[in-house]
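Model it.
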Amino acid sequence: MIVIDRESPQGNAFYILGVAQKLMNQKGYTAEEQECVLTEMKSGDYDDLCSVFEQTFCDDVELV
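Modeled.
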């Protein structure tokens, strides 16, 4: 389980997007699936990004 502190330097949006990309590659998401997830993560503000990230990767990552 990966733990990301939202208030640490690793808690910024770019880092979280990078972790999402890495996890999707590891899990075998297609390019289209990856683009859908990333687009949804980017479609709102930081809290929306974190919410989509948590919903998508709740088994692998915990945001604190």
